[in-house]
Amino acid sequence: AEGAYWTVSWKVVKYFKGINEAIMLGYLCSMQFLYGNEVGAFYRTIPSVKADTTFDGRRQRKAIQRLEKEGLIETANLGMPKKRYFRICSDRLEEFLESLRKTEWN
After folding, report:
1. How far is Cα 99 from Cα 48, in angstroms, rounded to an integer?
2. What's the confidence (pLDDT) of residue 73?
3. Is the pLDDT of residue 6 over 70?
4. Which phi-psi region, left, alpha or beta, contains residue 10 (left: φ > 0; alpha: ψ -120 to 50)?
5. How far apart are CA 103 and CA 61, in angstroms?
6. pTM for the full model?
7. I need a surface site. Which of 17, 73, 74, 87 has the fewest CB within 10 A?
């Protein structure tokens, strides 16, 4: 998680029919490992995510919305000034990855 790369599952890419969500999921998992508090929450700003991933605000929002819809992450805007917090839903992520592992791919 601390290296200059992310692990991206080709099964996650195929599931989402694109690479953005897979990259964002790997990135957020790395950030939670590095910066997560006692409940796994951490914050990242749009500029910091862009600096790390090259994803502009629109690409970030779309990928984050898809990951939220799948129940893989939770987000909240908290504090003053507001900060964008994330938390990986570990149980759901395990279920998701296990279902992908069992899926037959053509």
Report:
1. 32
2. 98
3. yes
4. alpha
5. 28
6. 0.89
7. 17
Q: Strands 42-43 and 83-88: what pairing?
A: antiparallel
Structural contact between residues 43 and 83, judged by C-beta atoms closer than 8 angstroms:
yes
DSSP string, 26-85: HHHHHHHHHH--TTS-EE--HHHHHHHH---HHHHHHHHHHHHHTTSEEEEEETTTTEEE
69 residue type, one letter: K
Q: In this predicted model, what pLDDT tens digit does every residue of 32-84 receive, in sequence order?
A: 999 999 999 999 999 999 999 999 999 999 999 999 999 999 999 988 888 99
Alpha-carbon gap, residue 62 to 18, rounded angstroms: 11
